[in-house]
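Page header: ASSEMBLY MODEL / two components / 262 residues total.
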Amino acid sequence: MKTRIRDVGGVRVLDLEGKITIGSGDVELRKSIEDAVTSGHNNILLNLQKVTHIDSSGIGEMVGCFTTMARKGGKMKLLNLTPKINDILQVTQLITVFDVYDSEPDALQSFKS
Amino acid sequence: MMLYFARMAREARLQLLSAYENIELAQRVLGELCGSAEIDDETTYWVGMALREALANAIKHGNKLSSEKRVLVHMLVVDGQLQIEVEDEGDGFDPSCLQDPTSPGNLLRSSGRGVFYMHQFMDEVNFCAGELGGTRVELRKQIGARRES
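Prediction written out in full:
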C-alpha cells in the first residue's frame, strides 16, 4: 500500500492506494495513523479512492484506529469509498459506524462542526 | 515461498509456507484459474477475497505463523462450480465459537470478521478436520460466464 500524506486546514488527509490487507497494508495504516496522532493531529480523513482490496484485517485496523481516535477526543472519517469497499462495510454494518463522504470539501468542513 | 505448485486448465494445487506474502501468490493463481474458466471479473474478485480470508486464518490462527507448517490449497472448477479447499497444520478450529460481528456489542471489535466475510462472498463454507491434523475450510461458489465489455 502507498500512502500520500496531506495536511489540509488542520485535518491530516491520508490518500491510500493499493491493498489494505494482512501483513502489509494493515500495519502501514496503523503506523500512518499513529504517526498522525503523535504529531498532534486529532482529525484524520482516510481517502480510499485508490484502495483496491481491503480484508478483515484491514477493516479491523480501521475500526481499531477509529475507536482509538475517539478515545483521544479525535475523529477519523472516510472519503471516496469504492463500490467494493462500500459493499464490505455494508455487510458488516460498519457503514453505520463511520462518517463517510464523497466530497473532500464536505468531509473537511464536517470536522469544523 | 511456495513449496509446490501444479496447475491444469481447471485445477491448481499449492503447498505454501506460513507467510502472508504467499496469500498474494495464491490469489494470483486463483485469478489465472478463473480466467481460464472464463469466470466473470466480479466473481473472481469476491472469491479472491474469500480465499485471502481463508489463507489468513490458516497462516495466523491455524499455523500461528510457524515457518515449519504448511498450508495446502486446492482449487477446482467443476460442474459450474468453483471449489477451494484450504488446509492448515494447526490444532483445529471450532466455528461454533465464532460471534456475530454485526451484533451491536461486536461492531467495534477489531477482529472476528474473516469467517463472516467468507460466508458473504461464497455460496457455501464448511469447516472440517484436515488430513494434516488441522482445519480444512471448503469454499464453494456457483460461477457465471464472463461479462462482455
